[in-house]
Specification:
This protein has no helices and 10 strands. The chain is mostly beta strands and 104 residues long. The chain has one domain. The chain has a 4-stranded antiparallel sheet, with no helix packed on it. Strands 3-10-7-4 form a 4-stranded antiparallel sheet, with no helix packed on it. It has a two-stranded antiparallel ribbon with strand order 8-9. The radius of gyration is 19 Å and the shape is elongated. This is Large ribosomal subunit protein bL21.
């Protein structure tokens, strides 16, 4: 069974037992969360497609960790103008494991 969910402005294709890193959500480690923006569910070659979201479908997951990705270095340069700018950014994430996919 597979599903496509939307969270943090991004879409993820998921399966039961899969670990994924999503945009940070306010949840404690070990907490059960419910993701209700399910766009598509596929099971046994049967597809259910939402317009855009399936009503009554949700995904239950458990929070494994909160963290930050590796640093992205940003360097801006204007040639012959003596302009250089160094900047960095670390995006926060929440790592979850998918426990079940529910369809009603």
């Amino acid at each position: 069974m597979h599903a496509v969910i939307k969270t943090g402005g991004k879409q993820y294709k998921i399966a039961i037992g899969q670990k994924i890193k999503i945009e940070q959500i306010p949840a404690d480690i070990g907490q059960e969360i419910t993701l209700d923006q399910v766009l598509l569910v596929e099971s046994n070659d049967q597809f259910k497609i939402g317009t855009p979201i399936l009503s009554g479908a949700n995904v239950k997951a458990k929070v494994l960790a909160q963290g930050q990705h590796d640093k992205i270095k940003i360097f801006k340069l204007r040639r012959r103008k003596h302009y250089q700018k160094h900047q960095g950014h670390r995006q926060r994430y929440t790592e979850i494991i998918i426990n079940e996919i529910n369809i009603e």
